[in-house]
Design a protein that fits this description.
Blueprint lengths: L2 H9 L5 E4 H4 E4 L13 E2 L6 H5 L8 E4 L7 E2 L1 H4 L4 E9 L6 H4 L1 E9 L2 E6 L7 H10 L1 H5 L2 E2 L5 E2 L1 H5 L2 E4 L2 H43 L8 E3 H4 E6 L8 E2 L3 E4 L1 H6 L4 E2 L4 E3 L5 E2 L4 E4 L1 E2 L8 E4 L5 E3 L3 E6 L3 H8 L2 H7 L9 E2 L2 H5 L2 E3 L6 H23 L4 H20 L8 H4 L2
Parallel strand pairs: 2-3, 4-7, 15-22, 16-21
Antiparallel strand pairs: 1-11, 2-8, 4-5, 6-7, 6-8, 9-10, 12-25, 13-23, 14-17, 15-17, 18-22, 19-21, 19-23, 20-24
Helix pairs in contact: 1-9, 9-15, 9-16
């Protein structure tokens, strides 16, 4: 029997009470539509917008930047000025675009904050803030549903406050926190090791990819304009025209966020469209947010005819499609894609610029020999690609498995037997 089991058997053998968040927490006052009959206590935290918050960052300092965004760090206490806060808090974002479990934060100490919704226990003799943090992560999928809005989604705080969590005796909370802290630490260490290994493998993969696909006598550079049998732009598919049924389609943003070097199934469908692509075609995203990634490309190797959205260029050709995709992902190709592009809010490319890109083609005057060599290179790079990028196999799958294992044990620890109501106990 574990120490936790012993404590539970000793202090709450018949189960524990479950309570609403509004009963046991105090929230920052900057939320609306909360029933003050439920949430009478409030607390005020001065805050900055996230962009201004990040401007406080310094190499050294002692104030934590409490933000649910990617960039967090330390700043100088003097710079924080009137925005300096202190305490032990749990924060969820006012506006979010990612799952809550990825952005919820716990902090104890001095901090400045962006526009978050901040909670703290109203009685730490009954509810530990760190235990509250783990409970809210555990309820992350439920709280996610309370975020609403057409653009940046915001939480309905009445719904958040009505979330129910188990409230065991303090020693039980302390032991659960101890276990989860240790498990979090071990999971983070293992994930860091796996991530470092994955980074090394990706660097190795990129090195061999660029070595295999490089200019030499038997692999001269050939312009895409000479390799293409046709090249044309897709037609716009609006966000509200994407559906769960219809013909498979690709919108340009998905080339950046969803597809790797090649893909065989589309994640989106639509009932409308006019420009199609099919097996073997290479797709280029000609609008992007950075010079470094503009004209990212991928090859389609599926069997269905699909629609291409706007800001996509479709290239038809007679080469090995995967070889084309790998060749176009090399550092040499990307340098050509970004050549002459000006960094601004939105970066664009076009068909004439894409046609000028040169890639190495093995034995271009001998079609059979060229295709055989292209396939040999593809077979090598496919194995590397699977190890580095396949979420169902290789190192990414191992990282995913460790995270799911952590979530499983966290959920198990926080699923406590519910104490029967007094009237039921009398039956």
């Amino acid at each position: 029997m574990s120490k936790l089991d012993q404590i539970i058997n000793e202090l709450c053998p018949d189960g524990v009470n479950y309570v609403h968040l509004w009963e046991v927490t105090i929230w920052d006052k900057r939320f609306n539509s909360v029933d003050r009959k439920k949430q009478k206590q409030i607390i005020t935290y001065p805050y900055l917008l996230a962009s201004n918050l990040f401007n406080l960052e310094q190499p050294t300092g002692n104030v934590f930047l409490l933000s649910t965004g990617e960039k967090t760090g330390w700043t100088n206490e003097k710079l924080a000025g009137n925005y300096l806060c202190q305490g032990e808090v749990v924060a969820i974002p006012w506006g979010k675009s990612r799952p809550l479990k990825e952005v919820i934060k716990y902090y104890k100490g001095k901090f400045v904050t962006a526009d978050n919704r901040i909670a703290t226990s109203n009685d730490t003799d009954k509810l530990l803030n760190k235990y509250l943090y783990y409970c809210m992560i555990n309820q992350g999928e439920t709280i996610d549903k309370f975020y609403r809005g057409s653009g940046i989604k915001h939480p309905n705080m009445n719904d958040v406050l009505n979330v129910i969590i188990p409230l065991p005796p303090l020693p039980v909370q302390e032991e659960i926190v101890r276990i989860l802290d240790k498990f979090t630490e071990l999971t983070a260490e293992l994930t860091a090791e796996l991530t470092a290994e994955l980074t090394a493998r990706k660097q190795q993969y990129e090195y061999y990819r660029d070595r295999l696909i490089s200019f030499r006598n038997d692999m001269p550079l050939v312009e895409l304009g000479k390799l293409a049998t046709d090249m044309y732009r897709g037609a716009g598919i609006k966000r509200d025209e994407v559906s769960s049924e219809g013909i498979p389609c690709v919108r340009y943003g998905e080339i950046y966020t969803t597809y790797n070097v090649w893909f065989d199934k589309c994640v989106s469908k639509t009932m409308t469209g006019s420009k199609t692509f099919e097996y073997g075609d290479v797709l280029f995203a000609i609008t992007g947010e950075s010079v470094e990634e503009i004209a990212k490309s991928c090859a389609y190797v599926g069997n269905e005819k699909c629609f291409a959205g706007g800001d996509i260029v479709v290239m038809k050709h007679e080469q090995n499609p995967k070889y084309m995709a790998y060749a176009l992902s090399t550092a040499m190709a990307q340098k050509q894609k970004s050549k002459g592009r000006i960094k601004s809010k939105v970066v664009h490319s076009n068909i004439p610029a894409i046609k000028e890109i040169k890639i190495p083609i093995p034995f271009p005057k001998d079609t059979a020999k060229s295709l055989a060599e292209q396939q040999r290179i593809v077979d090598i790079l496919d194995r590397f690609n699977k190890l580095c990028n396949d979420i169902s196999e290789g190192l990414p799958a191992e990282i995913e498995a460790r995270q799911k294992q952590y979530e499983y044990y966290r959920d198990k620890l926080l699923t406590l037997k519910k104490k029967e109501a007094a009237e039921n106990e009398q039956l």
